[in-house]
């Protein structure tokens, strides 16, 4: 039992020493303004936050996120085909794809997919 406790104490001591040495080595000697400021998608965070923002860019980003999540839901469909009832799988997959196609058609019809007019 004493060897287990000795080994545990040695492990804790060695890991503590390694963490302290890594902390001392990794400290930077000087701070730079650009490197210490957060990166905000190319915008300068030191300026006013009340600048106009392109709502077109925001709309395209939201549409991308919606269709990205839907692609993540489409990927497991072929895998679940082997373990599901074929009729219910075809019905669910067809309905899901129909909803996707209708949403894409609606976005296209509204002109949301065009970056510039």
Please provide a written account of the structure:
Its main location: membrane. It is found in: Membrane; Mitochondrion membrane. Belongs to the complex I subunit 3 family. It is a multi-pass membrane protein. This protein has a domain at 53-110. It has five helices and no strands. The chain is mostly helical.
Summary?
With 117 residues, the protein is mainly alpha-helical. It has 5 helices and no strands. The protein has a domain of 58 residues.
List the SSEs and their pairings.
Blueprint: H1 2-26, H2 33-36, H3 55-74, H4 77-81, H5 86-110
Features:
68% helix; mainly alpha; single chain; 117 residues; 5 helices
* Overall pLDDT: 81
Structural class comes to mainly alpha
What's the total number of strands?
A: 0
Percentage of residues in DSSP E strands = under 5%
Put simply, the count of helices is 5
Cα-atom radius of gyration = 27 Å
The percentage helix is 55-70%
pLDDT < 50 runs, ≥5 residues = none
Q: Secondary-structure element order, as H and E?
A: HHHHH
- Anisotropy-based shape: flat
Main beta-sheet strand count, sense and barrel state: none
* N-to-C CA distance: 77 Å
């Amino acid at each position: 039992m004493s060897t287990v406790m000795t080994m545990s104490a040695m492990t804790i001591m060695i890991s503590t020493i390694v963490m302290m040495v890594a902390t001392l080595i990794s400290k930077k000697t000087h701070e730079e303004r650009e490197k210490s400021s957060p990166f905000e998608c190319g915008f300068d965070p030191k300026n006013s936050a009340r600048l106009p923002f392109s709502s077109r860019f925001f709309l395209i980003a939201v549409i991308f996120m919606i269709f990205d999540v839907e692609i993540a839901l489409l990927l497991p469909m072929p895998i679940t085909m082997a373990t599901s009832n074929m009729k219910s799988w075809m019905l669910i997959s067809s309905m899901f794809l129909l909803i996707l196609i209708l949403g894409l058609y609606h976005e296209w019809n509204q002109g949301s997919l065009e970056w510039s007019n």
